Amino acid sequence: MTIDEIAGIADELETASSTEILRWALARFSGSIVAACSFGGPSGMVLLDQMVALDRSIPIFYIDTGLLHAETHEHCRRVAEHYKIAPLVVCAAVSLAEQNERYGDRLWERDPDRCCEIRKVDAQRNFLVGYRAWISGIRRDQTPARARARVIEWDEAFDIVKINPLARWSDQEIWGYIQERNVPYNALHDRGYASIGCVPCTKPSVAGDPRSGRWPGHLKTECGIHGR
Ligand code: SF4
Predict the structure, then answer these.
(1) What is the DSSP string of 92-103?
(2) Ligand 1 centroid – CA 219 distance (Å)
(3) Cβ-count burial of 110 within 10 angstroms (0-12 exposed, 13-18 middle, 19+ buried)?
(4) How many whole angstroms separate alpha carbon 111 and alpha carbon 113?
(5) Which residue from 4, 81, 181, 196 lies 20 to 30 Å from 175 (Cα-Cα)?
(6) Cβ(150) to ligand 1 under 6 A?
(7) What angle do CA 187, 191, 197 make, to 5 degrees?
(8) Consecutive 10-residue runs of the chain (228 residues): their mean pLDDT?
């Protein structure tokens, strides 16, 4: 697909429902599409719930940086059981021990961009090789970098088409869906963590600012997977 074709389809599907967008994507990229779910945010759970309802065989992956909360691992295990799926675990090519050796301990304190690049972005880049499209649960209201997300776009970071079926959704709509359908969510959300990443870089959020608990003390708001 050319960039112009993708932009044209994004225009056509801008007002479509998330399920309609997913249906289009699953048909268009059949056999070569994969969905991400971090198990650290409510949007990913809505995406997963809708995906599984349409096609349980689409691979769903998450990145295990080696620094996730025990609650995130437990949530992933419960979700797998609940939906009868087997999420694929994507890990960095560099182990934490190797990272410590190369860059020193606790790289995330000194250079979180580098740490995220190694543990998340590079890991995802390696994993996506061979796929033609990936599906993400990002929303425009989450960060400045996500505000311009199209429902379908060319992802320059990974050289692949990116589908954002929930781009237009609000936090309120996400939680409304979760409560209405009893969708499982990460237990840390009930302890003030609105958005959950790695243990050293996640704190409870300030009310009204769901991303405020990510990388506290740094200007960073994105790991790099969805821009910077
Ligand atoms: S969130 Fe923190 S610990 Fe996790 S990969 Fe990024 S910088 Fe490293």
Answers:
(1) -SS-HHHHHHHH
(2) 14
(3) exposed
(4) 5
(5) 81
(6) no
(7) 65
(8) 95 98 97 97 98 96 98 98 97 97 97 97 97 98 93 96 98 97 97 95 86 87 88
pLDDT the model gives residue 139: 97
C-alpha 11 to ligand 1 mean position (Å): 35
In contact, 138 and 226? CB cutoff 8 Å: yes
Atom nearest to 214 CA in ligand 1: 1
Cross-strand partners of 60:
35
Which single residue is written with the structure tokens 């699953």? 26
Ligand 1 closest atom vs CA 120: 5
Spatial contact of 89 and 60, defined as CB atoms under 8 Å apart:
no
Q: Is the CB of 112 under 6 A from ligand 1?
A: yes
Please report, for the chain, the start and end positions of each structural domain, with discontinuous segments joined by +.
3-200
CA of 210 relative to ligand 1 center, distance in Å: 18
CA torsion through residues 86, 90, 91, 93, sign: positive
- pLDDT for position 35: 98
